[in-house]
Amino acid sequence: MKLSSDDIYFREMSEANAIKEFQDAGYSEYKPRTNRYKQLPSDGVFANSPATQFVAYYRKNDEPIGVIGYSKFQNFLLGSGVHIHKDYRKSNGVEGVFKLLLDKLLQEKGSKTMVISFAHPKAMDMYRSVGFKDINEKELPEEILSEIQEAESRGSVGALQKLKLNQWWMTIKRNNNFLIYRRD
To answer: 25 with 64: CB under 8 angstroms?
Structure first.
């Protein structure tokens, strides 16, 4: 079965509320970042900056099936991980959930730079496929850079990433007509 955007809806909430939503549905495998992060320090900014989570619910049963989000640190967004309910993973015959979560993240992140450390190569490849690129480490605050370096020393598979907008768009509505400008 392949899920589409018609099959799910999202609710925005804190990390604590997202965890509670899964627990209330009888699912306990989604944990706080401080417990999930194996490479990133559990006492650092990636794990402890307040997170905004987007929980995906399956319309047929209103069950939470996945979550993705970010936290804010200075002028950066820090990826706060992705979790898909075990019953809705590709390994159980359900496709499309990761892509739907990633699309939601891109929709919500706006123009801010997002930094993500990856534990799984497939996730890193998926982010690259939607425009994430290697970042210039000189652009990062020391707190973020030191955590990324620590994660790499602990076996993180991913290089530092961010979404760079390589096109600029503007839409103007005038008398029920839309004008779209694009600058590369």
So the answer is: yes
Counting beta carbons within 10 angstroms of the beta carbon of residue 109, is it exposed (0 to 12), middle (13 to 18) or buried (19 or more)?
Answer: middle
pTM exceeding the 0.90 threshold for the entire prediction: no
Q: Strand pairing partners for 71?
A: 51, 78
Burial class (CB in 10 A: 0-12, 13-18, 19+), 146: middle
Q: Domains along the chain?
A: 5-183 (3.40.630.30)
d(CA 106, CA 152): 25
pLDDT of residue 123: 83
Matching residue, tokens 């694009």:
182
Give per-residue pLDDT as tens, 33-87.
Answer: 988 888 888 899 998 999 999 999 999 999 999 999 999 999 889 999 899 999 9
How far is Cα 164 from Cα 176, in angstroms, rounded to an integer? 31
Paired residues of 8 in beta bridges: 58
Residues 6+ apart with CB under 8 A from 7: 58, 59, 60
